[in-house]
Structures are given as C-alpha cells and as structure tokens.
Amino acid sequence: MRIFYLMKKEIIEILRQKQMIFMIVVSPIFQIILFGYIATTDVKNLPVEIINISNSKYAVEIINRIKSSPLFVVKKVSSRYDNPVKNMKEGKIRAAILFRNPFDKKRNPFGFPEIEILMDGVDSNSSLIAAGYFNGIISNYLTEIMERKGVKTPIRSKSLIRYNPELKSINYMGPAIVAMLLTVIAIFLTSSSLVREKEQQTIDTLMISRLNPIEIYLGKALPMLLIGILEMFMGVIFVVLWFGIPMKGNMLELLFASMIYLTAILSIALLISTFTKTQQESMFFAWFSMITFILLSGLYTPIENIPVGLRWITYINPLQYLMKIIREIFLKGNGTEFFYKDLLALFAMGAITLSISLSIFKKSVSK
C-alpha cells in the first residue's frame, strides 16, 4: 500500500510541471503529424524534363501519360535536344526523359521511339522508385500497343500486393512512429526521475522512510509505465483517425507487447538515472541510448540491410522487436502465435535489464 503513495507523489510531481504536460500530451501528437508527413518514402511531384526529338506518335502518347501521372511534375517539354544535366545539377529537375527516332528500323518495325531516362542519383532510393515508375508506364503502354496490333506477349507478369495494396509508406511508418515516440517519452521521463530526487536532495528522505529499495524502484517505474501505456493508446488512436491507417490486429495483444517492452526500456532508463548525478548527464545518456535504439530498430531501413557482422547488435535492441510486432499487428493482423519469439526476446531482455537495474539501485542506496 505504501508504494501507491510514492506513485501518487511521482504523478503529482510530473503534473506540477507544465513543460511535462506539454511533453506528454501535445508534443507526441505534433511529432506524429510531423513524422507522418515527412518520414515517407513515397515519390510524389518529382520534377521532370522531357525532350522529344522523335517523329513518333507513340512518344506523344507516352508523354501525355507521364503528364497525367500525379507522381511527376513535367517542368519542360522540348522538341530539340537541350542538355538536361545543367538543370539537374542546379536542382531544377530530378529526372529527364529523351525520346529519339530508332537507330535500327529493321529491328523496330512498329516505329517505337528510343527512350533514354536520366535520373538524379543523389537520393538513390527515390531515384530507383521513380525509375521503376517510368519503366512501368512505358512498358504498360508498349504492351497495350502490341496487343492492339495483334502481337501477344508470351509472358506478362501480374503483381498481387497483400497487406498494403496501395503501397502507402504511411501505413508502414505510422505504427513505427508510435513505437518510437513511446520510447522517447519513456526513456526521457524515467531517466530523470531518480536524478531529480538527488538534485532536490529528497532522495535521503526516501531512504529513511519505511519504503524498501524495491518499493522505491517500483514507485518510480510504475507511473512511467502508466504514462507509456497512455501514450501508446493516444498514438494508436491518432494514427488511425488522422492518417486512416487500418488496425487489423488485436489491441489487447499490442497492449501486452507494449507492457513487456516498457519493462525493458524503463529498466534501462532507471539504470541511467541510478549512475548519473545530474539531469544533464541523464538526458545525455538517454539521448544517446534513444538514437542508438532508433537507428538499429528498422524504422527507416530494414534490418536485413545492416551488414551481417554488425547485425548482432540489433538483437539486443528492444525497440527492434516492438517495431516488428506493432507493424505485424497493424498491417497483417497477426496474433501472438506469429510473433511469440519476439515477445520471448522482449521478456528476456526485460527480465535481465530489470534484474541488473534493480541490483545496481539496491547497491547505490545501501551505501
């Protein structure tokens, strides 16, 4: 029963600070909106220059299709060759498409134009995606023309996309942003809790009270756990309502996974708070830990892209497992039977970090 009074004190201490209220309520919503619109891999409004020096009617029809696509913004269409490299170097365009008459008319009896696509490769990911869109528009058009002329292609592939059929990156990034913000809030708030007691010189009062070290530890951790669950609920509701991301899985399973994850991340944060002496120090270690967790979590790049020799680091990153779980629940509607191994890994890390953190805390207060 005594632990609840300490939890009440911790919650009152947090609510008393207006900047904390802003950080807990307003800041996550603002960051979800900001990251939701910025952290996207979709290619939209790509500036394009088209040079058509061919006499082919097919070139005009392909150009019209490119113009009507919402993916590209045609800045210029020229009928004479104008070296587009200068405009690309100046950043005015990101791609250039050149149509010219075929060199070998015997091998091209239908008079299809020769097409050359020049891409700005500074942003390699966007360039690859845009080049794929260009090739898709061109190949689909040529296939249609061939079929009109009675020439059927021997093989025609058809892609069937599951779980995210519209290929919206926000459907993939939105749940991950919730997991990231859950980490940020939990680690920053918790890492400064014990340090604040040290700076305010109230830690000694706790030590001479009837509370034992375990009760003090839990009294600091449990309010942050409740705040973390609240943040998770708020983030999930917001991405579903604001961005229209469907949640196909079970909310209770996500809640269960989040609680296990928070056990691990709060233990790490309290460990930081135990061996640091000032809030500045705790914030630095919390920031360094947070950046490391996020970069190695698969938020922006797949884990498979990390070299094999360094991939083992991701296996001790709890955020990596939560990212996988929350995306599977949101997009695939998978249940516990599909990610129980990730839950076991989270549970093991939570148990280990909790034991280490609690052991070090008990030693520090017994000095």
Short summary:
A 4-stranded mixed sheet has the order 2-1-3-4, covered by helices on one side. The longest helix has 30 residues. The chain has 13 helices and 4 strands.
How many domains, as an integer? 2
Secondary structure class reads: alpha/beta
Mean pLDDT: 83
| Order of strands across the main sheet | 2-1-3-4
Give the helix tally: 13
Strand content: 5-15%
**Strand count:** 4
Uncertain stretches: none
**Main sheet, how many strands, which sense, barrel?**
4 strands, mixed
How do the helices and strands line up, and which of them pair or pack?
Layout: H1 2-15, H2 18-38, E1 46-52, H3 57-68, E2 72-78, H4 85-89, E3 95-100, E4 114-119, H5 124-148, H6 169-191, H7 193-199, H8 203-207, H9 213-242, H10 251-275, H11 279-295, H12 318-332, H13 336-365
Parallel strand pairs: 1-2, 1-3
Antiparallel strand pairs: 3-4
Helix pairs in contact: 1-9, 2-6, 2-9, 6-9, 6-10, 6-11, 6-12, 9-10, 10-12, 10-13, 12-13
Task: Please explain how this structure is put together.
With 367 residues, this protein is α/β, with parallel strands linked by helices. It folds into two domains: 2-39 and 168-365, no CATH class; 46-148, abc type-2 transporter like fold. It has helices at 2-15, 18-38, 57-68, 85-89, 124-148, 169-191, 193-199, 203-207, 213-242, 251-275, 279-295, 318-332, 336-365, and strands at 46-52, 72-78, 95-100, 114-119. It has a four-stranded mixed beta sheet, covered by helices on one side. The protein is elongated, with a radius of gyration of 28 Å. The two termini are 26 Å apart.
